[in-house]
Design goal:
The structure is a single chain. The chain is an alpha+beta fold. The chain has three helices and 19 strands. It has a five-stranded mixed β-sheet with strand order 3-9-8-5-6, with no helix packed on it. A four-stranded antiparallel β-sheet has the order 2-1-4-7, with no helix packed on it. Strands 10-12-16-15 form a four-stranded antiparallel β-sheet, with no helix packed on it.
Length: 266
């Protein structure tokens, strides 16, 4: 009797251990797919998106999913801010790719500026976990339609810029989401500072003597990657002339002056 009880207990332990081993094996792999969302800026560059982004529908958005057991299916659902379903489709992937890339579909409706579309993207793998239904990763993304480039209004500027000199510029940017502002003389970029009121900026830009030309521009990029560039209306004065001299300085003289400077600062 004791022997039969021992056999039963032994078999029960074997079954439990076996079930545990199978459940934790690759057969029941429980790692969900990794899903990343990217917006293409141009043919070469792209940026990864978070849960919310401004979007010009001319820019492609790509979903990239990876999983060790392979991608089984992906589903995309899109609704407007007033809960109107504008896209709802699921695709089955039979060849079990370890990586699957697909474009985020654009709703076939009019997309006015300011409209918000909520996307729900679900990707499922070929694992036998969760009663053979696989592991699923779900990403949610809010896109705000923005097709308009920023507006740039020059408020005030120096009358002219002299070769080897500098000029002051004040301008205003009108846009809901500014990503970056740059001011250039054609060779160098200059730091822009907020000025007086929101949306106003000031910058002092130079025309160094090592630059043979001056081509002043303001470039503004918004969060939907719409770009606006305008020229800076400065008269270019090339009349200034500068002498160049080579002065030989002995090392002991230079070291002495450096020591005096260190003592003065100290």
């Amino acid at each position: 009797m004791k022997f039969k009880t021992f056999i039963k207990l032994f078999l029960l332990v074997v079954v439990i251990v076996g079930a545990y081993a199978i459940y934790n094996s690759k057969f029941f792999e429980r790692n969900p797919p990794e899903v990343a969302i990217y917006m293409s800026i141009d043919k070469k560059d792209r940026v990864q998106l978070g849960n919310e982004a401004y979007w010009n529908p001319n820019k492609q958005i790509t979903i990239q999913a990876t999983d060790d057991t392979g991608i089984r299916s992906y589903k995309v659902r899109a609704v407007t801010s007033d809960n109107v379903v504008v896209f709802d489709k699921e695709e089955i992937v039979l060849d079990k790719p370890k990586e699957q890339t697909f474009l985020l579909p654009k709703p076939e409706i009019k997309l006015p500026d300011g409209m918000k579309i909520h996307y729900k993207i679900s990707v499922t793998d070929w694992s036998n976990a969760h009663f053979f239904s696989g592991n699923t990763t779900t990403k949610e993304l809010d896109l705000i339609v923005d097709t308009q480039a920023p507006l740039i209004n020059i408020v005030a500027n120096s009358y002219k810029i002299t070769y080897g000199g500098s000029a002051l510029l004040i301008f205003k940017v009108i846009d809901n989401g500014v990503r970056s502002i740059s001011v250039s003389n054609g060779e160098d970029d200059f730091k822009v500072f907020p000025f007086m009121k929101p949306g106003y900026y000031a910058v002092i830009l130079a025309w160094p003597v090592q630059n043979n030309f001056f081509n002043g521009t303001i470039t503004v990029l918004d969060k939907a990657f719409n770009q606006k560039r305008v020229s800076i209306p400065l008269i270019k004065d090339m009349s200034a002339r500068y002498r160049y001299s080579n002065i030989k300085v002995k090392e002991n003289f230079l070291n002495g002056k450096l020591n005096e400077l260190v003592d003065t600062i100290g």
